[in-house]
Amino acid sequence: VRDAVEDSVTRALDKSIDLGYEGPEEVPRSCLMPGNPTLLGELVRNLVDNAIHYTPSGGVVTARVLVDPFSGVQVLQVEDNGPGIPAHERGLVLEPFYR
Asked: Sign of the CA dihedral 56, 67, 7, 20?
């Protein structure tokens, strides 16, 4: 997640967006997520890229990794103050290839 944020700094600066990362410097080994690192990185980069794209100039985008200390469950959040998804489109956004 930090890599995706770092890779997006220039684009965020071009739009005067405050881009940040909140989370551990290193996820504890016991909490590591199994998966393909390339695909997981692409997932995070897509989320950060969309947040930057749809957030107006001067906005804020924050990527967070939270690790529950009891269960070890990881949570990824990408939060922005963009316009959001219109109510009439919310049911459609999970459809393949819907934009």
From this structure: positive
Quote the pTM value: 0.84
Please compute, for residue 88, the number of CA atoms within 13 A of its CA located in the half-sphere on the CB side.
0
Q: 40-54 pLDDT, tens per residue? A: 999 999 999 999 999
Residues with Cβ within 8 Å of 24's Cβ and at least 6 positions away in sequence, in order, are 65, 67
Q: Which domain holds residue 26?
A: 2-89
Q: Residue type for 4, please? A: A
CATH of the domain at 51: 3.30.565.10
Pairing mode of beta strands 18-22, 60-67? parallel
Neighbours of 52 (CB within 10 A): 21
